[in-house]
Design a protein that fits this description.
The protein has about 180 residues and is an all-beta fold. About 0% of the residues lie in helices and about 55% in strands. The strands form 2 sheets. Strands 3, 4, 5, 6, 7, 8, 9, 10, 11 and 12 form a 10-stranded antiparallel β-sheet that branches. A two-stranded antiparallel ribbon has the order 1-2. A hairpin with a 5-residue loop joins strand 7 and strand 8. The protein is elongated, with a radius of gyration of 23 Å. The termini are far apart.
């Protein structure tokens, strides 16, 4: 009888955010058993979305929504602002997930705005994080696109993870841009 070849594919996906280790013990009816060390990194399931903006008195209020947050201690965002817009603040209405977080603002260069939020208590769940306020510098052109260019979260365990970015938001229509094929 020839040798029997068995192919086994295994994917190890830890549920906890951060690095986890485990062991796989493969036993057969043969004398030997095989122990395989496993190591994997659980990813933050958190997603972030920019919702339809509200325009009042020349200022946009853009809801930032968190989805599936799991024990987040902080959030770092970078946005690309059109020339016609300037940062006017963050608002955390009563009932928002974040309460009143520590907020750090980096005005950046070339239309890039950096925001860092540190939460007093780890956030879990989903809902309104806060309202990003942007002021119009001049009369509104027909189309203003707001793009989130970087989003990172920090878990209560101290692990940092990058989030998938939502599509750019057209502030004129309140609709996320559709992806284009290259």
């Amino acid at each position: 009888m020839g040798d029997l070849l068995v192919e086994i594919k295994l994917e190890y996906r830890p549920l906890r955010v951060g690095t986890s280790r485990g062991r796989l013990l493969l036993s057969t009816d043969l004398k030997e058993s095989l122990e395989i060390a496993l190591e994997g990194r659980g990813l933050a399931p958190t997603t972030l979305s920019l919702e339809a903006p509200l325009l009042r008195d020349g200022e946009f209020a853009i809801p930032l929504q968190l989805h599936q947050a799991r024990e987040l201690n902080g959030l770092s965002l970078e946005l690309t602002l059109p020339e016609e817009l300037e940062y006017a603040g963050m608002e955390f209405p009563e009932g928002s997930l974040a309460g009143q977080p520590l907020l750090l603002v980096d005005p950046g260069e070339e239309g890039r705005l950096g925001l860092g939020l540190s939460f007093g208590q780890p956030l879990s769940g989903g809902g309104l994080l806060g309202l990003l306020r942007l002021r119009l510098r001049s009369a509104s052109p027909s189309s203003l696109m707001l793009a989130l260019t970087s989003a990172m979260v920090r878990s209560a365990a101290g692990v940092t993870d990058t989030l998938a970015l939502p599509a750019p938001l057209d502030l004129g229509t309140g609709v996320a841009a559709k992806p284009t094929l290259a």
